[in-house]
């Protein structure tokens, strides 16, 4: 599991026709992966299915963590499938950031695949000021991402 912090730029805003103080946000990158002992051609067909059981499992996992999940159109390139996703918090929107990420399935030879999830979330500057809170948020995001990725993996490899 790896992550890195990148500096963002101020986002202009307005409120009631008056200029608002720009809310500065910084992008935090996050990723995780799992190796699966199944052939790429089997799992890629499941991931490309727009009504496949993996998507139901993904949406249930997101709902349990108090997020709504939107999946984009899957894309396949040779031995890689990419599904764009967007998580939006159901509650505490000002304290819990949204996440934009890609689920990627890639071949690791005849009988193995790598399922990875890489994305970013934006943290308001006020939360960047509190290092302990920022660290706690990142740890929670990593834990949620690992849980989410594990549930997708289970739905793909389940008989």
Task: Give a structural overview.
The structure is a single chain. By secondary structure, the chain is α+β, with helices and mostly antiparallel strands. The chain has a single domain (34-157), classed as 2-Layer Sandwich (Alpha-D-Glucose-1,6-Bisphosphate, Chain A, domain 4), CATH 3.30.530. The protein has 4 helices and 10 strands. It has helices at 40-48, 53-64, 125-129, 131-157; strands spanning 2-5, 10-11, 14-15, 18-19, 23-36, 67-71, 75-77, 80-89, 99-107, 113-124. Strands 1, 2, 5, 6, 7, 8, 9 and 10 form an 8-stranded antiparallel β-sheet that branches. Strands 3-4 form a two-stranded antiparallel ribbon. A hairpin with a 2-residue loop joins strand 3 and strand 4 (18-19). The longest helix is centred in the C-terminal third of the chain and has 27 residues, at 131-157. The two termini are 27 Å apart. The model is unreliable at 1-24 (pLDDT under 50).
CATH class reads: Alpha Beta
Structural class by sheet pairing and helices: alpha+beta
Strand content: 35-45%
How many β-strand runs? 10
* Topology-level CATH name: Alpha-D-Glucose-1,6-Bisphosphate, Chain A, domain 4
In round numbers, the mean pLDDT is 76
**Through-space gap between termini:** 27 Å
The 3D shape can be described as globular
The largest sheet, given as strand count, sense and whether it forms a barrel, is: 8 strands, antiparallel
Spans of at least 5 consecutive residues whose pLDDT stays below 50 are 1-24
User: What count of helical segments does DSSP give?
Assistant: 4
**Number of spatially distinct domains:** 1
Give the helix proportion (percent range): 25-40%
- Rg over alpha carbons: 17 Å
